[in-house]
Amino acid sequence: MDLTFSPEQEALRSRLRAWLAENVARSGLKGPRPRSVDLDSETIARYKRWQQRLYEAGYVALSWPKEYGGQALDPVSQAIVNEEMLCAQAPALIGAMGLEMLGPTLITWGSEAQKRRYLPKILTAEEIWCQGYSEPEAGSDLAALKTRAELKGDCFVVNGQKVWTSGAQHADMMFCLVRTDPAAPKHHGISYLLIDMRSPGIRVRPLVQMTGERGFNEVFFEDVQVPAENLVGRLNEGWQVANATLVHERNMLGAVTQSQQLFGRLLALARSMRRNAAPLSRDPVFRQRLAALEIRVEAMKHHMYRLLTDRQKGRHSGLPGMINKLVGTELNYDLATAALEALGDAALAARDEPEALDHGFWPYEWMFSLGMIIGGGTTHIQKNIIAERGLGMPRIR
After folding, report:
1. Using CA atoms, how far apart are residues 390 and 383, in angstroms rounded to an integer?
2. Rounded CA separation 50/331 (Å)
3. At 2, is the secondary structure helix, strand, or coil?
4. For residues 255 and 186, is the Cβ–Cβ distance under 8 A?
5. Annotated active-site residue in 249, 341, 355, 365
6. Residues 276-323: pLDDT tens digits?
7. What pLDDT is recorded for position 348?
8. Domains observed in the chain
9. 8 Å CB contact between 257 and 82
C-alpha cells in the first residue's frame, strides 16, 4: 500500500495552506461552523461569503466534472482540502448538504437542464439546500413515507409533512421524497422532487433539541405546486435516487476529519486537567483509554484511505463503504463520553455557566453525537444493511 502523495497533490496542499493562512482570519468567523444551523441572518451571510471565496480560489468540489464547475481532480485532492481546512480551523461550508449530498446525486441522476440550473448555485452557496426525507411515521422505515404529490398538468401538487429537517428554516431549496403512486409496492411509487422553499403553502416550524437549539424542523406542505421539470430520475422510481443520496449522506456523517478534531480536543482537555497531582493524560487508566480511542481514530483514517483508493480506481466500495457512518458516529459518541467522564461534575454545567470547562463544549457534543447515531439511518438500520447487503446474511422476518 502506497500512502505517499504525488508532487501535484503536495503542491495543492502547499498552495491551500498558504491561502488559508491568509484568508481564515479575514472571514470574520471563528473556527469551524457550529453544528447547529440555528444561526442569525448576518452569520449565514458571512458563511455564504466564505464559501464563495473558497470556491473562487479553486478549493470547492474539486472532484466534480469541469463542465459543472469542478476541476475533475481525484478524490485524494478533495481529501487533502478537507484535512488542511481542519488543521487551519477554517470555517466549514454552509452549503455542505448541497455539495456533498445533492450535487453528486444530480451529476449522476439529474437532467442536463437540472445540472445547469442548480449545480452552479450549490457551489457558491447562493442556494442552500435541506433534505425532505423523514416523516412522523417514516423514520427508520423511510419507504413508509406518505407525503403525496399528484401530477396535475405541468405541476406536482404536494401535501403532507416532513420532520427532522435540518436547516429548513434557512434553506432556499429542498430535495424531497414524495409518494406519487399510493397503489404501488412500498419501495416503488416514490419520486424525488426539488422544491423551492419559498413556494406558497410551505410552513416551517423549528424543533427545540435537547441541546437547546433549533437545528431541526417540521415542514408542512399544503397544495404546494412544484414544476414537473423538478422531478429527478423517473416518475415513481425515486427510491434509487434516494439511496444514492443516502450513500453520500452516510459518508458525510461519518467523516474521519470530525473524529480527528474531537480526539485532538479530548487530548488537550486531558492534558489540562489534574488527577492525583498530575495531568489526567498521565493517569494510567485514562491514558489507556486515550490510546484505545486514538487507535480507533487511526483505523478510521486508514479505512477512509481504502475508500479513496476504491473511488480512484472506479470500484464500488461495497462493505467498506457501508460501515463508514456506523463506525464514525459511534466513535464520536465514545470520544464525547470519555470527555464527560474526565470532566466529572463539571460536565453538568451548561455552556453559559461560569463553572463550564472547555466553554461547555463537551456536554453539547455528547448530546449532539447521540443525534448523529440516529440521523442518516440508526445504528440498528446500518447493521442490518451491512449484514444483508454487505455480508449476504438472510433477512430476519
Report:
1. 10
2. 30
3. coil
4. no
5. 249
6. 899 999 999 999 999 999 999 999 988 888 888 877 777 776 677 678
7. 86
8. 7-94 (1.10.540.10), 129-236 (2.40.110.10), 254-390 (1.20.140.10)
9. yes
Let me know: does 373 contact 381? Beta carbons within 8 Å. no
> What is the C-alpha separation between 96 and 339, in angstroms, rounded?
27
Cβ neighbours of residue 157 closer than 8 Å, sequence gap 6 or more: 149, 150, 223, 224, 225, 226
Please enumerate, as own/partner, the contacts of 289-298 that have beta carbons within 8 Å and a separation of 24 or more. 289/338, 290/266, 290/338, 293/263, 293/266, 293/331, 293/334, 293/335, 293/338, 294/263, 296/259, 296/331, 296/334, 297/256, 297/259, 297/260, 297/263, 297/331
Question: How many whole angstroms separate alpha carbon 208 and alpha carbon 137?
Answer: 20
Q: Which grid coordinates are listed for 269?
A: 482537555
**Mean pLDDT across the stretch 187-211?**
95
Neighbours of 111 (CB within 10 A): 14
249 is catalytic: yes
| Backbone conformation region of residue 275, classed left if phi is above 0, alpha if psi is from -120 to 50, else beta | beta
Return the minimum-mean-pLDDT range out of 20-34, 46-60, 188-202, 266-280.
20-34
Task: Tell me the sheet residues that pair with 122.
Answer: none
Query: 10 Å Cβ neighbour count for 113?
Result: 9
Cα 267 from chain centre: 25
C-alpha cell at 222: 399544503
| The three cell numbers locating residue 389 | 447487503
- Angle between helix 75-87 and 284-312 (nearest 10): 150
User: What's the N-to-C CA distance of the chain in angstroms?
Assistant: 41
- 366-385: burial string, b at 16+ Cβ within 10 Å, e else: bebbbbbbebbbeeebbebb
